[in-house]
Amino acid sequence: IKEKLVDVLDHLLPPLEGCTSATVERVARRGIALWFPEKEISIESLIVGALESAFWDMDQLIAEDRKKYKIKGGCTALVALFILGKLYVANAGDSRAVVCKNNQALPMSNDFTPESERQRVRQLAALRPSLLGADFTHLDFNRRPVQRDLGKRILYRDAYMTGWAYKTVSAQDLKIPVVNGEGKRSRVLATIGVTRGFGDHDLRALNSTPVKPFLSSQPEVQILDIMNENIDDSDLLIMGTDGLWDVTSNERAVETVKKSLSTQQQLRTL
Q: Is the pLDDT of residue 35 over 70?
């Protein structure tokens, strides 16, 4: 991430006033970056781009390193970056960041699971059916059709649908939906319960269908302008994996941390 930010900050240098083409060439030879934008680009978008490209590069590095080292599995990724008076939180997976501000829990990330990304995964499956192998379908049903449902009408939705419609069940509809299950039990290709993160390049479903094409290392980046917020020493940032958030709410986590910090402060004053 540091490397990407250095690239961005270099390109934030404004053009020199009154510089000629010869000056530009001379400065370029000295290694000073000049930025002549065709359209206005905000500093925020450059920092977001640095985070996004760093996530992508990290995932590609894992893909390359697994050829030299024994690297199996994958992980979620959650990064908090404080820069230029703002907090940037980049999240890929179901880890979570929560800001406690004025004793209120402010979510700074969304969980990326088969449930929350059902439509993206199904649309990819519809566009590239070869990724599904022989055992999966991109269609979604209000309940999983079985053999006795053949020829009957059942509620379904295609990849381009957000609502439901009826269709007559055929043998093809008995395949496993690419996203199956609900809530924390939802899975992609009946295998994995998270849709963004690093690694899992060799993960396969039981029928040897690769899972990685349906996973993404792209983070969602949320921004909090600290300079324009009434932030004090009592405000804090909580970051945790799903192991924490599966057993507690954002509000309960904030309450617990605040209580713990208060107790520590009281002990120090004794």
A: no
Task: Place 37 in a pLDDT band, splitting at 50, 70 and 90.
Answer: low
Rounded-to-integer distance, Cα 157 and Cα 149, Å: 17
For the cut 60, the answer to whether the pLDDT of residue 24 exceeds it is: no
> How far apart, in whole angstroms, are the C-alpha atoms of residue 132 and residue 259?
49
Phi-psi bin for 51: left (phi > 0), alpha (psi -120 to 50), beta?
Answer: alpha
- Per-residue model confidence as pLDDT tens digits over 178-205: 999 988 899 999 999 999 999 999 999 9
Q: How many CB atoms lie within 10 A of CB 74?
A: 23
pTM: 0.83
Extents of the domains making up the chain: 2-112+218-261, 118-214
Taking a C-beta distance cutoff of 8 angstroms, is the pair 131, 215 a contact?
no
Q: The domain 2-112+218-261: what is its CATH number?
A: 3.60.40.10
End-to-end CA distance of the chain: 42
Helical segments of the chain, H only: 2-11, 21-29, 43-65, 118-127, 242-245, 250-269
